[in-house]
């Protein structure tokens, strides 16, 4: 057994964190763990659990800040009063652009972990968050051109890429039996960045007032630096699991990759799309009750908060009952919640509307956890089949791990584009009919399709079907 840090591998490295030698600039030397065997129970008890937990905690913090920056403009649009000259459709565009860039970056971010290492890329991706935050703090004032706001808002999408790299990294650290929980905790902690930035926005509105939106962005500058510093000093790099381009080709050729990506459009696409749009929907559809930004801000963080908190439980339930079964139940309940929102919208019932929408946040959060748990389960099933066909168990395990990381990036990217579609649906619905009813009807149809696909592919008994998903 050989390692890059000595004969005790990660155990010795973890025990010497405080005494690690420093370079001339005072930074810790790079930590690279060459021998990592999370499926080895003795290794996991002696060393792996402690090292993985440390990396998970720091990953959650960095991803949390990334989500806050990504969803920054869902808060800033609430500050853009008449003096900015932007209508409701223009504000939905401002929130759709960072969603789109964040989705596009998820695939290269996931592969960056394999190319550069989880610790190294976490530091880089955290520092990149300074760019949209600083620029937002500079340009946000009455008189700024709409094109400038679009460009700066789009740059906030770099925060969306952090999710894919963080999930790929955490996936590599944990054994199969704990992936649902670990990925759920990581994603849920990251998702909490959405209600966190909305709470910061509420605090600024309640204290400094609507004339100071720049303060929301500037609050995050020291937190970004702290996240990058924590990753640099406390995280580890694992060896690359294999050729990234070759792995992507393998994953693209796997039919289940596209099925899971579709399901993730329905769960995470709904969650992040609703997070970005909820405050604007309240202001436009119930403008009499929410005639000031601070009134809307009081409620915008509630749904994202609950959806983020329950995401790990979606992974837990999937670990126990199976990701496909939990995902099916979730989509059925989301369809029911959407029906409640549609009825409430037609009758202008704010209490019913809030109940239905908060339920959608909670259910999409659960579905995020269960759908993502299906990804390692798919390749675990493929690995079992390969072993039965004569492949070496360790080789099959390594292949499953690298393909899982690749699909995390692919499904995360495609799923995040669902958030773009949610904002576009709301924009077109309000432009065409003055309400969100057409958008709610479209969401209902999507959830019905996702229910049917989940049952047909993963739960219907048929020859050759994958089991244990």
Count of structural domains: 1
Quote the beta fraction. Answer: under 5%
CATH architecture: Up-down Bundle
Number of E strands: 0
CATH fold descriptor: Growth Hormone, Chain: A
Q: Report the end-to-end length measured between terminal Cα atoms.
A: 34 Å
CATH superfamily: MFS general substrate transporter like domains
| Average pLDDT level | 86
**What is the CATH first-level class name?**
Mainly Alpha
- Low-confidence parts, pLDDT < 50 over ≥5 residues? 1-30
Describe the structure in your own words.
This protein has helices at 9-15, 41-70, 72-76, 88-116, 118-128, 130-139, 146-155, 158-173, 179-191, 193-207, 214-234, 244-252, 255-285, 293-300, 302-321, 323-346, 350-388, 393-433, 437-459. By secondary structure, the protein is mainly α. Helix 4 runs parallel beside helix 8 (158-173) and helix 12 crosses helix 18. The two termini are 34 Å apart. It has a single domain (49-459), classed as Up-down Bundle (Growth Hormone, Chain: A). It has 19 helices and no strands.
């Amino acid at each position: 057994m050989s390692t890059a840090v000595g004969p005790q591998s990660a155990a010795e490295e973890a025990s010497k964190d405080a005494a690690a030698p420093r370079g001339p600039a005072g930074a810790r030397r790079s930590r690279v763990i060459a021998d990592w065997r999370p499926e080895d129970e003795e290794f996991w008890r002696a060393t792996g659990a402690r090292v993985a937990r440390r990396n998970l905690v720091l990953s959650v913090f960095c991803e949390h800040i990334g989500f806050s920056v990504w969803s920054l403009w869902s808060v800033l649009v609430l500050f853009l009063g008449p003096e900015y000259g932007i209508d409701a459709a223009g504000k939905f565009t401002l929130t759709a652009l960072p969603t789109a860039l964040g989705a596009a970056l998820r695939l290269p971010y996931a592969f960056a972990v394999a190319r550069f290492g989880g610790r190294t890329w976490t530091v880089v991706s955290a520092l990149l968050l300074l760019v949209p935050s600083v620029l937002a703090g500079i340009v946000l004032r009455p008189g700024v051109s709409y094109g400038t706001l679009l460009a700066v808002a789009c740059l906030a999408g770099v925060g969306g890429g952090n999710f894919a790299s963080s999930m790929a990294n955490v996936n590599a650290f944990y054994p199969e039996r704990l992936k649902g929980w670990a990925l759920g905790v990581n994603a849920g902690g990251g998702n909490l960045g959405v209600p966190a930035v909305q709470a910061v926005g509420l605090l600024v509105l309640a204290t400094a007032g609507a004339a100071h939106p720049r303060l929301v962005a500037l609050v995050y500058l020291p937190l970004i630096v702290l996240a990058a510093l924590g990753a640099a000093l406390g995280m580890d790099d694992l060896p690359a699991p294999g050729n990234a381009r070759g792995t992507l080709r393998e994953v693209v050729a796997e039919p289940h990759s596209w099925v899971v990506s579709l399901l993730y459009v329905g769960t995470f696409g709904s969650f992040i799309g609703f997070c970005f749009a909820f405050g604007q929907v309240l202001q436009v559809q119930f403008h009499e009750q929410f005639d000031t930004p601070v009134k809307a801000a009081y409620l915008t963080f509630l749904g994202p908060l609950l959806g983020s908190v329950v995401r790990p439980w979606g992974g837990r339930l999937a670990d126990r009952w199976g990701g496909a079964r939990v995902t099916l139940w979730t989509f059925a309940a989301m369809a029911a919640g959407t029906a409640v929102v549609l009825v409430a919208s037609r009758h202008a019932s704010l209490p019913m509307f809030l109940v239905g929408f908060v339920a959608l946040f909670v259910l999409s959060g659960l579905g995020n956890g269960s759908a993502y748990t299906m990804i390692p389960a798919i390749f675990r099933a493929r690995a079992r089949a390969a072993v039965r066909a004569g492949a070496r168990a360790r080789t099959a395990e390594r292949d499953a791990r690298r393909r899982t990381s690749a699909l995390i990036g692919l499904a995360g990217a495609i799923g995040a584009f669902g958030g773009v579609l949610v904002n576009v649906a709301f924009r077109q619905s309000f432009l065409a009919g003055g309400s969100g009813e057409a958008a709610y009807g479209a969401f209902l149809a999507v959830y019905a399709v996702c229910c049917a696909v989940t049952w047909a592919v993963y739960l219907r008994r048929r020859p050759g079907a994958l089991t244990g998903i």
